[in-house]
Amino acid sequence: MPSLTLRFSFSGFPRSRCCSTPTPKLSSFTSFQTEVNFRSIMDRLTSAARLMIVSDLDHTMVDHHDPENLSLLRFNALWEANYRENSLLVFSTGRSPTLYKELRKEKPMLTPDITIMSVGTEITYGNSMEPDDGWEAFLNDKWDRKIVTEETSKFPELTLQSETEQRPHKVSFYVQKDKAQDITGTLSKRLEERGLDVKIIYSGGMDLDILPQGAGKGQALAYLLKKLKSEGKLPNNTLACGDSGNDAELFSIPDVYGVMVANAQEELLQWRAANAKDSPKVIHATERCAAGIIQAIGHFNLGPNTSPRDVTDMSDCKMENFVPAYEVVKFYLFFEKWRRGEIENSDLHLSNLKAVCRPSGTFVHPSGVEKYLEDCINTLRTCHGDKQGKQFRIWVDLVLPTQVGSDSWLVSFKKWELCGEERQCCITTVLLSSKNVTVADGLTWTHVHQTWLQGAAASDSATWFF
Ligand code: GLC
Ligand code: MG
Predict the structure, then answer these.
(1) Which is nearest to 296 in space by CA: 323, 326, 325, 264?
(2) Domain assignment of residue 7, yes or no
(3) Of the four listed, 17, 294, 360, 431, which is most buried by Cβ atoms within 10 Å?
């Protein structure tokens, strides 16, 4: 496909304009609730984020050709162990909130700090996804979706996408590759004649989105960067990740690193050839999807780039400092491998585990039963290899440590288990301390407490160990 997205989505969006494009006054429309959610993200960061990852989902963070979701799980472990506490995860997707939530149910995805949906027309904060009303109000400029609907109805080649994908600032169609360029040109002129200023984006060789000129993934990112800067928390590094036409804009925002994953679409690679060919800040990874993101973290030297999932002997990986989040990730990876029968059923593993538990340490099972941690470790014998040959995965999300004493941390997180089609989750808190221990890496699990996440409890709670 020739430079379709270029001509139309970027003719009104030259590089230099990206950040000088008028963005709304940051607080003018922002509701109280949006402010609260944005604030809680800001409060978590004691200083500027070490890294902000802004990633597309379909075929970038999520590999639809990998039923095991391995690269996504590798990324998850890396993020939670090394970045979650002091960095920002932003998902930027073409999907509407409805389809985004469906994807989250289907795939082992982390919870992002910020979610940008509907091709940069909707921005929400936190787990509760509070919308940024200021951003949406700004998009009304020279936009009238009724006129867009009227004009597009004159093109029989355009097939309207599902109702869920039609949003206040996004009208979306399917169109054949060979017709897309002509239609985009004509439509663009007609809408201009009717007083609108729109951006038409072609993605994935089939999707055609019509948005207000000020919208799009790039503009939404520029807006966020501006908002963070006004808080004095401009991220130290930002990495944009994408695979298709609607991601192109992400790669023209100044001072942002970019990775086009190995499996990037033709239209995005053509955009790169025309616009960012010699830019050392944008790479075309050799790895697919989330593995390409990990590759880019390494390539640009943005921080740790070895996923704990890729470390075969976890007892080997001693950190320079005691990192509570890393300990949690490491334990659950051990537990997954134990149940998949990928590590040897030896007493040595169990005694190593016991060595890092306080003898009187307790575990409150989500059913409400309280046990000694040591007893729980003894029962692990019964589940070694019980998930062998099955699709069984464990991942942790939102691993957030709080230092509660000079040498103790309360780590809270969501612990997910996937077995076949079934998914279970416990909100978990762990009290870790580094006091009075003899083990070389110096930590003790003192207390573990779990509560079922609403709607994600196991039907048989006896199959839930930790
Ligand atoms: C997602 C959206 C769709 C959009 C496409 C490209 O698939 O669901 O509406 O056209 O992304 O942006
Ligand atoms: Mg994509």
Answers:
(1) 264
(2) no
(3) 294
